[in-house]
Specification:
5 helices, elongated, 161 residues, mainly alpha, single chain
């Protein structure tokens, strides 16, 4: 139970932090800076860096907890006799999406996190920015959390059968 709780808490902390950042903090800072300076809103670089450093520490901790608890939970569940093929398929999708998020944050967004990269001029750069941006990671994180509920439902149905 403690492992499940730690796994859920780490996921909710990361995704919840992303929601807070995108929907509250960034708009408030942009509005405040725009009104204060009488020009187009935007995050001051020093604030962006400070937020990035603090949030990166939180996300790094969440990733470590998610990896450790995820391995334990996966092994525990996959060794049960009631595991079905749909359960395994959903688990694989969840793991692939989570690993994509970890990869983006750890290797692709080292200098720009939590801010989105400025879109480049080429189609490839715009696509890459969209697939690795803060909003994309947040959407994927919400999907991963939803897949956890699907997995719980599949396991419960298998236990009842």
């Amino acid at each position: 139970m403690a492992i499940r709780w730690g796994h859920a808490l780490a996921a909710v902390t990361w995704v919840g932090g992303g929601i807070f950042y995108l929907m509250v903090l960034r708009p408030a800072l942009q509005r405040a800076r725009g009104h204060q300076l009488g020009r187009a809103p935007g995050l001051p670089p020093e604030i962006s860096r400070s937020i990035g450093v603090e949030f990166r520490g939180l996300v790094s901790t969440a990733i470590a907890v998610l990896l450790l608890t995820g391995v334990i939970l996966s092994v525990s569940r996959l060794t049960e006799d009631v595991v079905t093929s749909p359960y395994v398929a959903v688990l694989v999708v969840k793991i692939v999406l989570a690993l994509y998020m970890f990869y983006v944050v750890r290797f692709m967004r080292q200098d720009s996190y939590p801010e989105d990269k400025e879109p480049g001029y080429s189609r490839w750069q715009r696509l890459q920015s969209r697939l690795t941006g803060t909003t994309a990671l947040l959407v994927i994180g919400v999907i991963v959390i939803g897949l956890s509920d699907v997995l719980d439902g599949l396991l419960e149905n298998a236990l009842v059968s």
